[in-house]
Amino acid sequence: MHGTTALPAECAVPDNGPLTRRRVPEPDHPYRTPFQRDIGRVLHSRSFRRLAGKTQVFTERASDHFRSRLTHTLEVVQIARTVARALGLNEDLTEALALAHDIGHPPFGHAGERALDDALREYGLRFDHNLHALRIVEHFENRHLEFRGLNLTLAVREGIIKHSRDYSAADHPELAEYFLDQRPPLEAQLIDWSDEIAYLTADLDDGVEAGILSIDEIRRGVTLVERHFAPLLARHPAAPQKLLFQESLKLMLNALADDLIAETALRSHPLPTLEQVRRAPGRIAAFSPQMEQLRREAKEFLYRNLYLCAELENGHRQAATVIGDLFAVWMAEPWKLPPSYAEQVATDGAPRVIADYIAGMTDHFILEMHRSEGRAPVPLGD
Ligand code: MG
Questions:
Q1: Which residues contact 372 (CB under 8 A, 6 or more apart)?
Q2: Is the pTM of this model over 0.85?
Q3: Could you give the count of Cα atoms lying within 13 Å of 169 in the half-sphere of its Cβ?
Q4: Domain ranges (residues) in the chain
Q5: Torsion of the alpha carbons at 340, 342, 348 and 349, rounded to the nearest 10
Q6: How far is the CA of 339 from the centre of ligand 1 (A)?
Q7: What is the mean pLDDT of residues 250-279?
Q8: CB of 198 within 8 A of CB of 187?
Q9: Which one of 116, 311, 352, 382 is most buried, by most CB atoms within 10 A?
């Protein structure tokens, strides 16, 4: 199948052209494409390294085998590159987008995101991890002499904000340069689905490892597992259940990726250019209707039995308390923020800057900060 799915070359974002534009112009590299350079800049950034200390799903580290946001990100890179290659899209751009896709996530996973959003709502603001990621790569990463931030290409900045949702120009005039009335290129459209493929399979795995989910209930509730598990069991009746489950998860991942490739290729064929992808009435990258139904079933199973389960509730409550307490400490005394954040307060206002600071922290660091009530034990960032 993979030999026949490649889209016309005009669908892919080219390695030259307007989407490689940077805010501060730089000479071309002699042998690296602009997107390969963006891969390097994200990979070598501090905010990327901090993903190692951020929760994916499990806040309390009962096992070294759970995914962190870093290992999750690397799984997304692997899946997204595979899909991009099969479709003949720009693999380097896809990799840069996959590496950056979770860089704006705060500590404590989605519980942390909700807590930050709640704190900001009191001031009429919202927390959005895509917009925060853009602020990181535009401003808070500060390691280059010639420019502030990472000076990434336009394609990567556009993909960072648009990979998972659309923003209206009326609500976000500051994002005007990102073609808000158009669809993102296919490379960016793939990221959200590659993310889903990665976490649906990984969270079933980690949920079993944590002792919260049982393989039997997953077999009853997730068709995408059972449709592989049952025939494997028939062929290998003496095999350990855990191995059959692992093999089923691998086949589930492959089935999702295969379907995404085939359906996206099918839906792209009447639209042979990037311009037409952009002007299409909706996003093109998608699962087939049958697979979409199975994807939803798996996702709803995870919400019901894992993400909202009582065993994880303690961690979620702790996240809300820690973030709420620290937010209040710095709102009362914003001059206690590290200098690079404190100097932003005049421009962006204290609530936004405090959210920026908190969102950059690892789980470990924010807990240390909370223990010392906002007095930094070691400085974060510069
Ligand atoms: Mg993700």
A1: none
A2: yes
A3: 7
A4: 9-372
A5: 170
A6: 30
A7: 92
A8: no
A9: 116
